[in-house]
Amino acid sequence: MIRTGTLTLAAALTISTAPLPLLAQDTGTDEGSGQYTGQGDGAEGDTTAGESGDTSTSEDGTQGENPEEPSAPDEDTEGQEAPQAETGAGTEDAEATGDGSATGQGAQATQRTPVPLVPEEPTWNSFHGQLSAQKYSPLDQITPDNVGDLEKVWEVHTGDVSDGSGDLPTTVWSATPVYANGLLYIGTPFYRVLALDPATGEEVWSFDSESRLEALTQPALKNRGVSYWEAENPVEGETCQKIIYLGTMDARLFAMDADTGELCSDFGDNGALDVNQWNDTNNKWPFSLLQPPTVAGNHVIIGWAGNDWKYAEAPPGSVFSVDPQTGELQWAVDTIPEDIRQETGTANVWTAMSVDEELGMVYLPVASPSPNYWGGNRTQEIPLATSTTAVDLETGEVEWSRQWVHHDIWDYDTNSAPTLMDITVDGEEIPALMQATKMGFLFVVNRETGEDVWPIEEREVPTGDGTVEGEVYAETQPFPTKPAPLLDQAEKADVWWLADLVGFGQCSRLFDDLWYEGMYTPPTTEGEGVYTFPDSAGGVQWGGVAFDPESQTAIVNTSHIAQYIQLYTREEFDEIQGGSGNEAGYYPQIGAPYGMSLQVAMNWLGMPCWKPPYGELVSIDMKTGDVNWREPLGSSQKFGFYMPESMGSPTIGGPAVTAGGVVFIGSTMDAKVRAFDIETGEELWEDTVEAPSVSNPAVYEHEGRQYVAFIGGGNTILKPQVGDQIAVYALPE
Amino acid sequence: MAHTRKRRSPLGATVTALAALAGAGLALYLYLTPLTGVTGTIGALIVVVAALLVALGAILIATTGHPVWRWLTILGIIGTAIAAAFLHGWWIVVAMIVALVGIVLDGIGPVRKEQGAAT
Lengths: 733, 119
Description:
The complex is a heterodimer.
Chain A (H helix, E strand, L loop, with lengths): L34 E3 L38 E2 L2 E2 L54 E2 L13 E7 L13 E3 L4 E3 L2 E5 L4 E5 L6 E6 L12 E3 L3 E4 L11 E6 L4 E6 L14 E3 L19 E3 L2 E4 L15 E5 L6 E6 L19 E3 L4 E6 L20 E6 L5 E6 L15 E7 L2 E9 L5 E5 L9 E5 L15 E5 L16 H6 L3 H8 L16 E3 L13 E3 L4 E7 L3 E7 H7 L8 E3 L6 E7 L14 E7 L4 E7 L4 E2 L2 E2 L12 E4 L3 E4 L6 E6 L5 E6 L9 E5 L2 E8 L12 E6 L3
Parallel strand pairs in A: 4-39, 6-11
Antiparallel strand pairs in A: 1-23, 2-3, 5-45, 7-8, 8-9, 9-10, 12-13, 13-14, 14-15, 16-17, 17-18, 18-19, 20-21, 21-22, 22-23, 24-25, 25-26, 27-28, 29-32, 30-31, 31-35, 32-34, 33-34, 35-36, 37-38, 39-40, 40-41, 41-42, 43-44, 44-45
Chain B lengths: L3 E5 L2 H22 L9 H23 L2 H20 L3 H19 L2 E5 L4
Antiparallel strand pairs in B: 1-2
Helix pairs in contact in B: 1-2, 1-4, 2-3, 3-4
């Protein structure tokens, strides 16, 4: 056991095991292509020292097994008391590393008790219901036989909504309510918290962060909810033994007593932690806390979002773990090698994370580096970018990492929490993890080791047309062999005859002009640009994959959207640049030699040029990796007109599954919420909410009655329809 | 000299006009009421206007008897019904079917002879 020395955050974070070089372009398959193996027990090879000057070493330890006493702080760091603790992790001689896994200043290691992956009691106390991100409820009152009787038992309109026509930016509300402490908690895009009676919707308390309602890093005011923590051994009579956390666009994390909504004065600065104090490289915008932190044990684990469309040089990716009651930093993970942090940025974690508390691992879905569509400033490997990275819950040390896109120049952020699942494949029980991706690939690996469950092959991909200055392309990319891709990216999609007819051949001409040589065809300056499918919003979005542990069935919704990307020289871009929206428009990539545009392939009337379906709901048997069923999901809608349901809808949000055999999901343009039979995919029930429900529903039990809660919040990626509605359904009493 | 004019009974045109007004009212309801799925959409407004134009067509049929209004009104009814179907406004579709029945009634209804004024 060692103690960390005096530390300053600006001097980088220490106590880390240096990572092995990531085989970013590894062509191996069976051995786990592109797999980074952190030290753990040191078995994977030599560790290499990083480049941080501030070093600390740790002794060999037993990872996460023994409680450690925190050491006394040595000095304050930018107003934040430097956290001190021993690292209980099994590090070898380690230094702060730049390349991928710099970990923090010591963990307040705590005794872990075995925690089953599937909670024994109905649990929906976090963004994805449970830390496994299964979005699974063991409740079974609602079944395929009676779900048709569901009725809306209450609804609340928060009032926190803007369509962008006034002084405020438009709102994007993708929150999932959290059921905990006998209350239902929800954050709003005006950065307020409501605590509601789960049975009636009556407000118990509310909290207003009075945060700046400005689009500081995003085109809209966004919020995906709140997080909940409770002390394992609460101190009677003390406040803040149960805490709700709310993040804001301007980088503050508020902590409030879950019973009263009063700020917890011991947390940060009188209840608010300034996370931007750690924004010390390329500080061009604040760390926006739109995704609620992931709370596990005595760790509040914080990722952040930014404005990765604008700058080539941006804040480099980092994840922070802080003490739940004080906000003191426990550890941090840096995702970009130190020697190139100034030249690039992001590779951040902007979506939810998942946690296996029994293994003591946090799984980070890491985004792409900046700028999004040119990589000439980052030609060396960034092993943790666009990856799933497993880190030790107590220390932040990287245990293993799998990179899903090498040298990502398509903005294919890993955008959802991996779903942890125990599956049986060929008679072998496997602690697995399924990572859904923007590419529409579902990667399945062993969550203990990162090794393939079904082979993930490195395949050759197009390497450019030679028109883009400074670019060095990856020659191969990982392709899963099972499950099959959720959409077919091998060739351009077929042109939809009706859109082509209405457009007088516009769609055919556009598709003919777009360059495409298959998945991962890189951006170009030539012609109309490069065809890209799926689009930057993703084949799967942050709703991720739901999993029924009883039948070992995975449920995932997809979007099928074709876009095209064009790069422009700086001079050209300055002449033609236009407006930008949410995942479409013109983006400068300041600092890169190219600006770019990203457009959805549509005709003059706004009809999609490619053949439907535009979105589907898919069921996968995780014992075999085969598809059970797949059905078009929802209706697309334009000007109010619904397209036939056989055409499906682009989807944002995700499903929840129950032991009753029902899948609940919103996600579609038509602002409907639906229930499906998990066995057959048959639609059993629907209702209309105020705006597209772009988050996962919450399923909870309160006083013996099962409820399903949807948020009608809307997202401008789907259509400009916004809402402020919480709609809760149950069977008649 | 006095003359006579053949005119249809106003029954069919009246049915068409009333059904079209009902359709416009339903579309307005869809436009204005929260959670209809088409609240505040251009599509719902288009159907409101289209249904009102059908009602106007019915009035012109009744007042002028000119066949061009009949055919234009039929086209209007079909178009409004299709648009309403894409809004999932099924009661508007029903109203348009009734409006079409009115047109049929107007075409097959009894002819009334009117005495014209002396010129």
